[in-house]
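Continued from yesterday's entry.
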Amino acid sequence: MTTPILSKTLRITVSRLTEDGETFRGLLAPSILELSQDEMIRDLEPVSYDLRCALLSEGALVQGTAQVRFCGTCDRCLGAVPTEVAADVSHFIRELEEELDLLEQLREDLLIAFPSKSLCDNDCKGLCGTCGVNLNQKACDCIPIVDTAGAWSGLDGLDL
């Protein structure tokens, strides 16, 4: 099995486009997402895209999808969460040059589609705030801290 060549660009030559459109499929290097410093994302796979580009009288229409898979981190227990992000891509480009550079738009579409919260399970119990044990794997002997005064009690003595 051969390893596919991963591109770091997504440029389409405008002169290749017709009104009927042309399909572009491929794989982009995961580095285009600029997530290498994010500790919550590991094993980022190549970004795949399937786009249809058509030349119109006022510009070019780009539509399709983009996907990426990675191993995320649960926001509650810090466990691994296999994740796939898919984004719909739809852009109308008015100002045409010799090439359409679609990389930034595709990148933004994918990043916007990333989940704001990542959970290994909807019922994840998370970590104990005192001892740090993963409560999904075992119970701990810590005594829960109960705040009877309430979250806003620190403001009670203020004279406004």
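--- second protein ---
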Amino acid sequence: MPRYFRLFALLLSLLLAGHAAAQEMTPSEAFEAARAGKITLIDIRTPPEWQQTGVAQGATLINMIHPQGAAGFLKEVLAKTGGKMNAPIALICRTGNRTSQVQRFLQAQGLTQVYNIPEGMAGSMSGPGWLARKLPVEACKIC
């Protein structure tokens, strides 16, 4: 193998390593994984949003606008995972925008299995969303 080709292959592998594939799930995949106990499903929307649409069945509600800020949000997420940094969690919001930001934040804090549901509850360019897929919804019990 020519030397320049090996160098190119090494540079390409380093570049791709820095851009790992985003960890994503469809609403259906997240519902099945949560129902099977394989992930913790976390709805990061606000209480008015939970009241408006209901919440994904089995979801843990943690408002991303936490009273103690980012540190309080992280502490609450870790409480739900038993402090395990490698516990699989899936994040859902209205359209997947906020969850992608929160996913990056949690990964930067060292959590390794953080999945985004880019369709969200209401749907987005990624797909129809939890509600349109007619997945189970519960009334907000803490609102």
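The first strand starts at residue 40 and ends at 43. Residues 5 and 12 are 10 Å apart (CA to CA). Will compare against the first tomorrow.
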